[in-house]
Amino acid sequence: MSVPRYWRETKYRYRLIGQMCAQCGSVMFPRSGVCSPCGSVDLEEVKLAETGHVVTWTVVRNPPAGYMEYAPYLVALVELDDGVRVLSQLVDIEPIKMKTGMRVEAAFRRVKVDGNSGIIEYGYKFRPLIE
Amino acid sequence: MRLSRDVAVVGGGMTRFHHRIHAERTSRELFVEAALEAKCSVDNGFDLKDVEALFVGNFSSDAFEGQSHTAALMADWVGITPVAASRIEDACASSGVAVNLAAMAIASGAYDVVMVGGVEKMRGLTTEGVTDTLAMAADAVYEVGAGFTFPGLYAALASAHFAEYGSSWEQLAAIAIKNHHNGSLNPKAHFQREVMDIASSLGERNQMSFGDELEFLRSSLNPYIAYPLRLFDCCPISDGASVLILAAGERVREFTDSPVYIRGIGQASDAMALHDRESLTSLRATRLASDQAYKIAGVQADDIDVADVHDCFTIAELMATEDLGFFPKGEGGRAAVEGRTGLDGEISVNPDGGLKAKGHPVGATGAAMAYEIFKQLRGEAGRHQVAGAEIGLAHNVGASGATVSVQVYGR
């Protein structure tokens, strides 16, 4: 990904920002140009919940380019407390301790080093929530 | 949706799906081999000059071989220029969709005789290169960007299915064992060995021995790829091509007295990324595409005798047998363990070995499924023939379920 393109995306990668439809109230992530439930284009940005629970998960042992340094690592589908679902890496936990339904919170982390542009990409990952 | 004219398969061919034997060959050579077999398979003879249009399913000759504009290239190499030649790209469902579009092109009245096929030459890249190329079929930003791979996405679906229905890895293993058995009977399959046969030779090499398949599949010789999926839950990386010749109902008898009709077709899409799916234990696009195809064909799921379903991972076959309506939701795994999907089961699933054993050159897979059903319904499938098969189904999935195509075939 090019440096300018990544910078344009930082707001959404650094903080969990989705969109809310002003017509039907649906909250979506990631943002797009159209509300998929009702078709409205009257959309506004909204800060998503930073805590949620693990819906399903796995351990990636053969990672895509740029993620080799983390392998093997956990990835999960997280349902935030406002009902929005996000795919993310999980950190600060061993695979053996993983449980579906586990409570997690968003954390700001280094995601990868882009080999082509040399840019270090940061963004959200999730870690166990200590309540 | 409906088909306004009858459409039949009158010929079919495919290369063996494999990596090593095709090491020195390119897409065009693979496609020509499949096309010539298809031509020669037409009972009353076939002149390639009768082809009016070509549809080619291909996922990524661009990334795999540095070659785009694939359909015109294939038309050129098969010697059928100047016919209309179009490439269809829908990830791993590319040629399943191509078959549907070819059927529609004939049903519409635009053409009477169409060649449709698929091709993929994957093994020019390393395994890492193939993994990264396949990952292009997922959401590059929100799935791959979150660290997911294809095995990772299907593993997440497996974990969700296990949690919701209590299905298990042992049930997935039964699917792998069954598909390897079927592959051992299919001379076109990538792997033509039973799991136990592989266990013996791998065990010997590693000074290990195994009493049965499960003992081997639980061992370190079957490593995890993405929990709960292990190596034997994943299809191999293969090269290959597949080609069919379709004809309009009115013209069929010129070519054969034993046509196989495309009775119904269906196609649907779904959210690309798993975070936008309504379900993680069922592919909505499979349900919608098969409902369309059953309705057009005037059949129900339990009328199907033989089905080629998309088993890029064992969990995908388990879910497909439920979503296509062969078994109630949550019972696909048990049905596999009980042998109900075996060659002599109540519905034979992947008698050719499936993607698991037959191989998965992604763009060639959908048309190769159609080829298998063509052979099955004509009683020409050889050692993996399903006795008395009269109604068949092909089910081709793109990526983790964002595209699905289905055809129902009958005599």
Regions with little confidence, pLDDT below 50 for 5+ residues of chain B: none
Largest sheet of chain A: 5 strands, antiparallel
The stretches of 5 or more residues of chain A where confidence is low (pLDDT under 50) are none
Number of strands of chain A: 8
CATH superfamily of chain B: Thiolase/Chalcone synthase
- Could you estimate the helical fraction of the residues of chain B in percent? 25-40%
The radius of gyration over CA of chain B amounts to 20 Å
Tell me, rounded to a whole number, the average pLDDT of chain A.
89
Query: How many beta-strand runs of chain B?
Result: 12
Q: Please tally the helical runs of chain B, counting DSSP H or I stretches of 4 or more residues.
A: 15
Shape of chain A: globular
Largest interface: A-B, 30 and 35 residues
Describe the strand arrangement of the main beta sheet of chain B, using strand numbers: 3-2-4-7-1-8-12-11-9-10
Q: From the 3D structure, determine the CATH topology of chain B.
A: Peroxisomal Thiolase, Chain A, domain 1
**Under the CATH scheme, which architecture of chain B would be assigned?**
3-Layer(aba) Sandwich
Describe this structure in words.
The complex is a heterodimer of chains A (131) and B (411). With 131 residues, chain A is mainly β. Chain A has 2 domains: 48 residues; 83 residues, Beta Barrel (OB fold (Dihydrolipoamide Acetyltransferase, E2P)), CATH 2.40.50. Chain A is built from 1 helix and 8 strands. In chain A, strands 6-5-4-7-8 form a 5-stranded antiparallel β-sheet. A 3-stranded antiparallel β-sheet of chain A has the order 2-1-3. In chain A, a hairpin with a 6-residue loop joins strand 7 and strand 8. Chain B is an alpha/beta fold and 411 residues long. Chain B has one domain: Peroxisomal Thiolase, Chain A, domain 1 (3-Layer(aba) Sandwich), CATH 3.40.47.10. A 10-stranded mixed β-sheet of chain B has the order 3-2-4-7-1-8-12-11-9-10, sandwiched between helices. In chain B, strands 5-6 form a two-stranded antiparallel ribbon. The interface between A and B is medium-sized, with 30 and 35 residues.
